[in-house]
Amino acid sequence: MSNIIICPNHEYQVPFISTMAFMGAEKWCPYCGHTTGIFHDGKEVDATPELIKRQVDYREVSKDFIHAKGVTHCSLTTWKGNAILPDQLPQEEKDRLAQIRGEWKYNIKIEETV
Ligand SMILES: [Zn+2]
Q1: Ligand 1 centre from 9 Cα, in Å?
Q2: In the prediction, which pLDDT does 112 show?
Q3: Which of 27, 54, 55, 80 gives the lowest tally of CB atoms within 10 Å of its CB?
Q4: Is residue 84 within 8 Å of residue 75, measured between CB atoms?
Q5: What is the pTM (predicted TM-score) of this model?
Q6: Beta-strand (E) ranges in the chain?
Q7: Dist CA 70 CA 54 (whole Å)
């Protein structure tokens, strides 16, 4: 069985999600918000089917949030097929992204959302 890296901060096992959406970090815990880099502080555990499913589910529900978060830091984004600076996004899109960023809730077990 291969390994999976989980967040060290809580009993509830949550695999990190790999993302570039957070400044200076490559891994993010969707449960507590912990971020860490390549030399992570997570725990390596057996990648059980349950943990793999949990990671897939968290990735799925956090897609919009990660996009909204990532656009804040990135130097280029796309809008209607064109590459533009995040600052050049229409105000309503900026507002929409800000709302998504604000709506993400931590400390929710993925099993409780489905
Ligand atoms: Zn965590």
Answers
A1: 5
A2: 86
A3: 80
A4: no
A5: 0.88
A6: 3-6, 17-18, 27-28, 35-36, 43-46, 77-79, 82-84
A7: 22
Q: Give distance in angstroms: CA of 77 to centre of ligand 1.
A: 28
11-23 average pLDDT score: 93
Does the pLDDT of residue 38 top 90, yes or no?
A: no
Instruction: Return the SS3 of 24.
Output: coil
Span from the CA of 28 to the centroid of ligand 1 (angstroms) = 8
pLDDT class of 114 with cuts at 50, 70, 90: low
**What's the whole-number mean pLDDT along residues 10-16?**
97
Q: In angstroms, what is the span from residue 8 Cα to ligand 1's centroid? A: 7
CA of 85 from ligand 1 middle (Å) equals 31
Q: How far is the CA of 72 from the centre of ligand 1 (A)?
A: 22
